[in-house]
Automatic annotation (TrEMBL):
Domain of life of the native organism: Bacteria
Protein's UniProt name: GMP synthase [glutamine-hydrolyzing]
Enzyme class: ligase
GO molecular function: ATP binding; GMP synthase activity
The protein's role, per its UniProt record: Catalyzes the synthesis of GMP from XMP.
Reactions this protein catalyses: XMP + L-glutamine + ATP + H2O = GMP + L-glutamate + AMP + diphosphate + 2 H(+)
Binding residues annotated for ATP, in chain numbering: 228-234
Any one of the GO CC terms: cytosol
The gene coding this protein: guaA
Transmembrane intervals: none
Species of provenance: Halomonas organivorans
Length: 518
């Protein structure tokens, strides 16, 4: 396994995912980890990741000294390379000019890290060239005495460095991003050949390990899970069912703000097909009643979240002898809340988890996905036999259609929106576009716009369509859907749904627009 030390870069999680894609477990820890903690984790190698600070500034973060004394291979990426150079006797040069984007590095000296890797040959020197992605201001100006410079570009003469005997390597560019074409092979060289890590991080193995852990934690006691139909809680349900069978009870709350047929699909998959015990609570009236007259988006979110907890509590109270609450917390949540505690986080998402419940009911938490990234959770879901369409479904916000009906939520609006959304999603599937977008949905605009039917003018509601492409949901581009597809969706919505006279397509990017409309 690999240890990744975080200096605050947005790319750190990506490095961890890439290492795991190779089949090797990796964990992200803060740069100020102690020697004892490293020894306890017992990695095969250490990656020093990037960071936003400057090595040249006083008080900027450093790797613990022991990182270079444990006899382990070390790979420094970007800031990680710079701090390695500085800590081992080299020099880093500050700069307020950033080099950002594509670059071509020339491999000057043979090194295990770039063995047999090449994108092009430089005709003048006969050396290999690599297409890479750069994102840095500072750079290494002088390598420590024992290191050689292994790659260079005209603007960055020390683009990579190595001390082969010690197995210390540094790269200024980012092998973890796909723009670095051979980046994955470079990481494979480090993780497999240089660190000699074992390739045992596979969905089947993860499931086996987690089942054993859950059984040990839970024993013969009972676990409660809030099932939402989303990927994470679905995978937790499937995993726990496999691990502890009837000791698991799920509560599924239908708040009246779900997508078309969602409630029935959840019941069919879990209750009918898999035999999971699921209590369904149809609480549409309760939710819509509480939302009556409320137009402010944040107020709506709070009401939906609080009402959910009330309903869940009420259902849970009916079940005897529950000791554990299962949650679909995943690794990015863990990293974010750890970063939030140390004040290193830039963005924190507010999750609408079952807050408050563990304390009031004195429940212990079962979180079998705590170590997993979303793509790993999906692979686990498939391995556990969940339907592909459920596992690879677009994300859906906790407040559901509540934040896709602008202003006050009414049943009439929700019913129209559900149908419009279903038509849009169905046509995206038919056209092969669903999986090319990251999130797509319809939005209900409570304004009346004119339409002509026969000889008469009709004033009806407006539906907006939104489809975006994104990797991390922090930034997003509107999907360039074909006009024919948009035309078909629009025709169907207007013709099939009475009450809608106009359909528009949202062409706003995030930022400054957000993905949801509220
Ligand atoms: P925005 O609209 O902030 O959305 O660009 C980014 C991602 O977060 C989802 N989202 C939410 N998820 N509760 C949730 O569970 C919420 O209140 C909420 N608001 C936005 C949104 O669907 C997108 O995937």
């Amino acid at each position: 396994k690999i240890l990744i030390l975080d200096f605050g870069s947005q790319y750190t999680q990506l490095i961890a995912r890439r290492v795991r894609e190779i089949g090797v477990y990796s964990e992200i820890r803060a740069f100020d980890i102690t020697e004892e903690e490293i020894r306890e984790y017992a990695p095969n190698g250490i990656i020093l990741a990037g960071g936003p600070e400057s090595v040249t500034e006083l008080g900027s973060p450093r790797a613990p000294k022991c990182v270079f004394e444990l006899g382990l291979p070390v790979l420094g990426i970007c800031y990680g390379m710079q701090t390695m150079a500085e800590q081992l006797g080299g020099a880093v040069e500050g700069s307020n000019k950033r080099e950002f984007g594509y670059a071509q590095v020339r491999l000057d000296v043979e090194t295990a890290l770039f063995k047999d890797i090449s994108d092009h040959i430089d005709h003048d020197t006969g050396r290999s060239l690599l297409d890479v992605w750069m994102s840095h201001g500072d750079k290494v100006a002088q390598v420590p005495a024992e290191f050689s410079v292994t790659a260079s570009t005209p603007s960055c003469p020390i683009a990579a460095m190595a001390w082969e005997e010690k197995r210390f390597f540094g790269v200024q560019f980012h092998p973890e991003v796909t723009h670095t074409l051979q980046g994955q092979r470079i990481l494979e060289h480090f993780v497999l050949d240089i660190c000699q890590s074992e390739r045992n991080w596979t969905p089947a193995q993860i499931i086996e390990d987690q089942i054993a852990r859950v059984r040990e934690q839970v024993g013969d006691r009972h676990v409660l899970l809030g099932l939402s139909g989303g990927v994470d809680s679905s995978v937790v349900a499937a995993l726990l069912h496999k691990a502890i069978g009837d000791q698991l009870t799920c509560v599924f709350v239908d708040n009246g703000l779900l997508r078309k047929d969602e409630g029935n699909q959840v019941m069919e998959t879990f209750s009918q097909h898999m035999g999971v015990r699921v209590i369904r609570s149809d609480a549409e009236d309760l939710f819509l009643g509480k939302l009556e007259g409320v137009a402010d988006p944040e107020d709506k979110r709070k009401i939906i979240g609080n009402t959910f907890i009330d309903v869940f509590d009420e259902q849970a109270a009916k079940i005897d002898g529950v000791d554990f609450l299962a949650q679909g917390t995943i690794y990015p949540d863990v990293i974010e809340s750890a970063a939030a505690k140390t004040g290193k986080a830039h963005v924190i998402k507010s999750h609408h988890n079952v807050g408050g419940l563990p304390e009031t009911m004195k429940l212990k938490l079962v979180e079998p996905l705590r170590e997993l990234f979303k793509d790993e959770v999906r692979k686990l879901g498939v391995e556990l036999g969940l339907p592909y369409d459920m596992v690879y479904r677009h994300p859906f916000p906790g407040p559901g259609l509540g934040v896709r009906i602008l202003g006050e939520v009414k049943k009439e609006y929700a019913d129209i929106l559900r149908e419009a959304d279903a038509i849009f999603i169905e046509e995206l599937h038919n056209a092969g576009w669903y999986h090319k977008t990251s999130q797509a949905f319809a939005v209900f605009l409570p304004v009346k716009s004119v339409g002509v039917v026969g000889d008469g003018r009709r004033y009806e509601w407006v539906i907006a369509l939104r489809a975006v492409e994104t990797i991390d949901f922090m930034t997003a581009r509107w999907a360039h859907l074909p006009y024919e597809l948009l035309e078909k969706v629009s025709n169907r919505i207007i013709n099939e749904l009475s009450g809608v006279s106009r359909v528009t397509y949202d062409v706003s990017s995030k930022p400054p627009a957000t993905i949801e409309w509220e």
